[in-house]
Design goal:
Rossmann fold; about 400 residues; 8-stranded mixed sheet; alpha/beta
Length: about 400
């Protein structure tokens, strides 16, 4: 374990000198605290699997994995600061495979098309994180999937790159408004958000309560929080998490200023970071390797300077009062019981503020519950859509949407 951490630190330290060396040293300390358990797994793996074989396995999974390949009709929205936001629309019956028999299997009969379901993804992910839910709902109801600013196919945040402004959750709420204006300018909407995407939905509700009253017919908040994220310990001892909190903002800022060198370091320590990602994304020990690699690819595709510019927003996030705007709506609050990033207690706190909400706590599930247990998430989402009037009748999705048996498209 110590040898693995030492290798990671050495790889980072070799990329440059001086102040950068000191910054990466602090980064190595923070990452070492976070990675202790993960590094042990990497050390064991290295005794049994060669580096070349691991690299080959990643390439095979990247080329053969079916996940993240679903595409819809592309569109662009523009945020109030000019940032170009990319979205895709799946209309009912977008392809020949969306047969009446398949719709009956999912929901009993054809869905009305007047409701649009808008999906917002989490930090360091992109719209493809909804792969299983997208596959299950295709041809059934109108859906919109978008990439948050600086993620996926959306442009880098103009306010961040041109004016040096920090990202705020309030800005993300305004971004969601721009996407809705462009992709669903009229008719009822159901808002679905995971993690940071759930915070985006809360910020939207806080800033546009009249739109919530007039057009929103349902909300799903998956693995998210209304605030107090500064108290999350990420499964670490108190001393360790306090040390990380003290140094991480400055470290990320320093690393973000040397993004090219950091990306080289990330590639050099790919095995360690893969284990960290798996630990903080999933609770299931035997998660499908293709799904794990899919999540890893999304997260590692987020540049370090984007990671840095978003991080401070989470400590400032507090949308507890905004939850009141969702009262009276059909609301699904769902979380993994073993989520280390946004613990399930945060979802319980949201549900406590919405007595009519359905609270679902998924056992043996981590932060990326919609990838780890997609059949549960899709089934509960289908029920929400039925309650919201987006589909005429809910039904159990069954094998479709399972990480082991899901159809790729």
């Amino acid at each position: 374990m110590s040898e693995t951490i030492a290798e990671a630190a050495a790889s980072a330290a070799d990329v440059t000198r001086g102040g950068w060396r000191r910054a990466t040293g602090v980064a190595g300390l923070a990452i070492g605290v976070l990675a202790t358990g993960a590094a042990a797994g990497v050390a064991i793996e290295r005794m049994t699997v060669g580096r070349g074989m691991r690299r080959k396995a990643r390439l095979v999974l990247d080329s053969a994995g079916p996940y993240g390949g679903l595409r819809g009709t592309p569109g662009k929205a523009y945020a109030d600061d000019g940032t170009e936001l990319y979205y895709e629309v799946d209309d009912p019956d977008p392809d020949p495979e969306a047969t009446p028999a398949r719709r009956r299997r999912l929901f009993g009969r054809r869905s009305p098309a007047q409701v649009t379901v808008v999906f917002s993804h989490g930090y360091c992910l992109n719209q493809d994180s909804w792969h299983f839910q997208r596959a299950a709902l295709r041809g059934v109801v109108r859906t919109v999937y978008w990439d948050q600013r600086s993620h996926g196919r959306s442009a880098r945040g103009a306010a961040q790159t041109e004016r040096g402004e920090p990202v705020t959750i309030e800005q993300l709420g305004r971004d969601l408004k721009a996407v809705i204006d462009a992709a669903a300018p009229e008719g009822p909407v159901v808002l679905v958000g995971h993690s940071m995407g759930g915070m985006t939905v809360m910020a939207f509700a806080d800033q546009y309560p009249e739109l919530i009253r007039e057009r929103c017919v349902g909300v799903a908040l998956v693995g998210t929080s209304s605030g107090r994220l500064g108290e999350v310990n990420f499964g670490l001892p108190v001393a360790g998490v306090n040390a990380v909190r003290r140094v991480l903002p400055g470290v990320l800022k320093a690393l973000g200023q040397r993004a090219e060198l950091v990306e080289k370091g990330r590639r050099a320590t790919a095995d360690l970071f893969a284990s960290i990602i798996k630990r903080y994304s999933f609770a299931t020990r035997d998660v499908d390797p293709a799904v794990a690699r899919f999540a890893e690819r999304m997260i590692e595709g987020t540049p370090i300077d984007v990671v840095a510019e978003y991080y401070p927003a989470f400590n400032d996030h507090d949308k507890t009062e905004a939850i009141a705007h969702l009262a009276g709506l059909p609301v699904l609050v769902l979380a993994g019981v073993e989520d280390l990033v946004t613990p399930s207690e945060h979802s319980e706190a949201i549900a406590d503020l919405l007595p009519g909400a359905e609270l679902v706590l998924v056992p043996d599930a981590g932060h990326l519950v919609m990838l780890e247990h997609p059949e549960v998430v899709t089934d509960r989402l289908a029920d929400l859509l039925a309650r919201a009037g987006a589909v005429p009748a809910a039904a159990t999705v069954g094998g479709y949407g399972s990480s082991s048996t899901a159809e790729p498209g």
